[in-house]
Amino acid sequence: MSETSSLSKDEICKTLVELGHILEISGSSPFKVRAFANGARALENWQGDLVSLVQDGKVTSIQGIGKGLAGLIEEWVLEGESEAEEEIRSLVPESLLDLLKIAGLGPKKVRVIYEELEIESVDELEEACQENRIQALAGFGQTSENSILKGINNLRRFAGRHLVSQARAVAQRFLDAVKSVPGVERAEVAGSLRRNRETIGDIDVLVGTLDPIPVREAFMSVEGIREVMAEGETKSRILSEEGVGVDLRVVEPVAFAPALHYFTGSKEHNTRLRQRARERGWKLNEYGLWDEEGAALPTPEEQDIFRHLDMAWIPPELREDLGELEKAADLHSRSAEWEPLISEQDVKGVLHCHSTWSDGKATLREMVQAASDLGWVYYGTADHSRTASYAGGLSIEQLAEQRAELEEIRGDFPHMTLLQGIESDILADGSLDYPDEVLAELDYVVVSVHSSFSLPRAEQTARIENALRHPATTVWGHPTGRLLLQRDGYEIDLDYLLSVAAEEKVIVELNAHPRRLDLDWRWGRRVLELGVDIGIHPDAHSTQGLRDVEYGVAVARKMGFNSSQVTNCMNPEEYLKRLNLCHKS
Ligand code: DGT
Ligand code: CA
Ligand code: CA
Ligand code: ZN
User: Fold this and answer.
1) pLDDT at 487
2) Which of 38, 113, 155, 382 registers the highest number of CB atoms within 10 A of its CB?
3) Is 354 inside any structural domain?
4) In a shared domain, residues 247 and 301
């Protein structure tokens, strides 16, 4: 039993960071606080089997971990809990840790708020802000009071939603479990996850079988259930240990397609389709489709529902009532079908990836190898530029050294087109981060905002326009700077800047990192109208990060794009020509 309760390395790192925060809030010595932060980092970077290390009594051999931390780690690994941990946790009220989730509030500030005003919870902090008691504190002001209020607002707004990456992992666990139950004919994930929304409220799993009991049993025995919230013959709901809700619905196989359509949503789409049925005196719901005489129309597949209603099948991603029903009716009237949307296999390579040259975790060679393993035929590195010192930005000399290394790597990957780029910070005035002649030597240049997020809208727009018009600029990286469930993008006239990108032939990035998915899918239609070219780039900081392309493709599908509408689906020759179009220097 003790083995199952043992903490993993990741959990230990997280706990160390949290304990460091608690110590700092409680006013412990800076020396002790730093030991926890450094220990977490040391352990995170250490590679090896932690359990054997503990069993051999050699935890202190990890540089940066002293006797005290080693004791804690041993207890966590061997017993899954620790008295010393509980002691530290008892130093401050638990609810104070919620304050750390507010953007811009670190342990130092939380300590002041707690010490000076005895505030212990988010609600109390909100009240204090509204009464202007925070701005009177040393080190705070009107601006920080406003930004705390905004942070609290965001915290509430984002509560209970999840990144697609996490939701997909949880969903897979439950789907695999129910799929393998004997008697199960169909099983699929529905809801927002099937529609490729950028964030997910809860997961909806749908199963078609005549025998619901074993399905429910299999569902309830999946590992990592925190709480069973409802348990019934055909409907159950649990909360996973990650805090994600999972709904299970079990229907008879004949009702699978109408149920899949219904639980895929969106609600708005469902309402419109139901209206269409009603207009001809029919009835449509999650159980099936009936004509004016009350006779059930056969609907073994979703396609059949749409066909009966004189429509082409609509890809789930597009079911948001944003014109897809009209298009489907039109397609059907011309006996046409929806053009296939882009798929992962269409992607032939990527730009905008980091390596150990700046803040990536893998070497350039490892990244190229991983890209080659994914079957890609081109790969463009783009580390951070010199102003991004926090991220190990490259000096002009380092750029030249990197070029030499890339040349060497080229020899070992003759089937790949390897490009040297840079992710250049857009400086506060909109200029780029190297002299023009240095930029001109690169194969491509991504321009991104990493600072001065809060410029007024007109200024921010002018700043970015400046960068987009620079002759060296190839790609506009993570255009709005939003971080899903964390912060909104900076204030800009996005429509105008997209038109500038079109004019300058700058590729607009669809950043595939699950925290970004920036450009937002809602701009898909406008992008096509303006003739802007979109590239799906992973912004990878590790070999694993290259796989984030999956999420970018999901968003491109939601934009309704096919492979001809994404630059990095081009073959290498075409692609190089396209890059040179905007690399005008
Ligand atoms: P989420 O979970 O907030 O990310 O978004 P959804 O779309 O997955 O929403 P959810 O889980 O509440 O419900 C799944 C689907 O079930 C939803 O997309 C459409 C359908 N549905 C749920 N409630 C209603 C309703 O009141 N009317 C209609 N027409 N459809 C509904
Ligand atoms: Ca859902
Ligand atoms: Ca649901
Ligand atoms: Zn960036």
Assistant:
1) 86
2) 382
3) yes
4) no
Residues 285 and 393 in one domain: no
80 lines ligand 1 (CB under 6 A): no
Annotate 486-555 with DSSP letters as a single string: TBPPPP--HHHHHHHHHHHTPEEEEE--TTT-BS-GGGHHHHHHHT--EEEE--BSSTGGGGGHHHHHHH
Q: What is the CATH number of the domain that holds 266?
A: 3.30.210.10
Residues 568 and 441 reside in one and the same domain = yes
Among 180, 185, 164, CA closest to 221: 180
Does one domain contain both 150 and 13?
yes
Domain boundary among 184, 219, 251: 251
**Rounded to the nearest 10 degrees, what angle do helices 549-558 and 164-179 cross at?**
90
Closest-CA residue, ligand 1 atom 30, reads 267
Nearest residue (by CA) to ligand 1, atom 25, is 267
- Together in a domain, 141 and 28: yes
Q: Can you give the residue range of the structural domain that contains 305?
A: 259-333
Q: For ligand 2, a single-atom ion, which residues have Cβ within 5 Å?
A: 191-192, 202, 204
Question: Final residue of a domain: which of 157, 176, 197?
Answer: 157
Strand partners for 379: 350, 418
Residue 583 is predicted with a pLDDT of 57
Q: Are residues 86 and 185 in the same domain?
A: no
pLDDT along the chain (585 residues), means of 10: 66 94 96 95 90 94 94 94 94 94 91 95 94 92 92 83 96 98 98 98 98 97 93 94 95 97 98 97 97 97 98 98 98 97 98 96 97 98 93 95 98 97 97 96 97 95 98 97 92 98 97 98 97 98 98 98 98 95 61
From the CA of 563, how far away is ligand 4's center (Å)? 25
Pocket mutation for ligand 1, best pick of 192, 274, 484 (most atoms within 8 Å of C-beta): 192
- Over the stretch 410-449, which tens digit does the pLDDT of each residue have? 999 999 999 999 999 999 999 999 999 999 999 999 999 9
518 C-beta closer than 6 A to ligand 1: no
Could you identify the atom of ligand 1 that is nearest to the CA of residue 270? 29
Distances (CA, A) of 232 to 237, 248, 261: 9, 10, 22
Tens digit of pLDDT for each residue in 441-474? 999 999 999 999 999 999 999 999 999 999 999 9
Question: Do 22 and 68 share a domain, yes or no?
Answer: yes
Whether 196 is in the pocket of ligand 1, judged by its Cβ within 6 Å, is no
**Pair of tokens at residue 295:** 């006779």
200 in ligand 1 pocket by Cβ < 6 Å?
yes
* Nearby residues for ligand 3 (ion, Cβ within 5 Å): 202, 204, 247
